[in-house]
Amino acid sequence: MATISQLADPAGLTINGIKKHVAVLEVADLVVTAKVGRTRECRLGPAGLREATDWIERYRSAWELRLDRFGRFVERTARGEE
């Protein structure tokens, strides 16, 4: 658990800036906040990253192939082999 201030400091963001980021994460159920006294505490929410991880894995291999091909193209072009 961390407060908004604790999250903002190492990220180099303002309190308002981090609040906007946290609000987006709240909508996705990745973060839950609660007002405790004068602070707002954040903790991980009920939605796990499983869905996002699954989506990334489905596309990872295709992107790796494309980036490998692009890398070979760049190397050939740099050597003037085009």
Task: Please give a quick description of this structure.
The chain has 82 residues and is of the alpha+beta class. The chain has helices at 4-11, 15-27, 50-79, and strands at 2-3, 31-36, 39-44. Strands 1-3-2 form a three-stranded antiparallel β-sheet.
Describe this structure in words.
- The protein starts with a strand and ends with a helix.
- α1 (4-11) crosses α2.
- The mean pLDDT is 90.
- The relative contact order is 0.11.
- The protein is an alpha+beta fold.
- It has helices spanning 4-11, 15-27, 50-79, and strands spanning 2-3, 31-36, 39-44.
- The chain has a 3-stranded antiparallel sheet with strand order 1-3-2.
Record keyword descriptors for this entry.
82 residues, 62% helix, 17% strand, Arc Repressor Mutant, subunit A, alpha+beta, 2 domains, 3 strands
Question: Secondary structure elements and their pairing?
Answer:
Layout: E1 2-3, H1 4-11, H2 15-27, E2 31-36, E3 39-44, H3 50-79
Antiparallel strand pairs: 1-3, 2-3
Helix pairs in contact: 1-2
Strands ordered across the widest β-sheet: 1-3-2
Measured by DSSP, the beta-strand proportion falls in: 15-25%
Topology pattern, helix = H, strand = E: EHHEEH
Shape: elongated
- Please outline the major beta sheet: 3 strands, antiparallel
For this structure, the CATH topology of the largest domain is: Arc Repressor Mutant, subunit A
Which structural class is indicated by helix and strand composition? Answer: alpha+beta
Overall number of structural domains:
2
User: Helical content, roughly?
Assistant: 55-70%
Full CATH superfamily name of the largest domain? Winged helix-like DNA-binding domain superfamily/Winged helix DNA-binding domain
Name of the CATH architecture of the largest domain: Orthogonal Bundle
- Mind telling me the C-alpha Rg? 20 Å
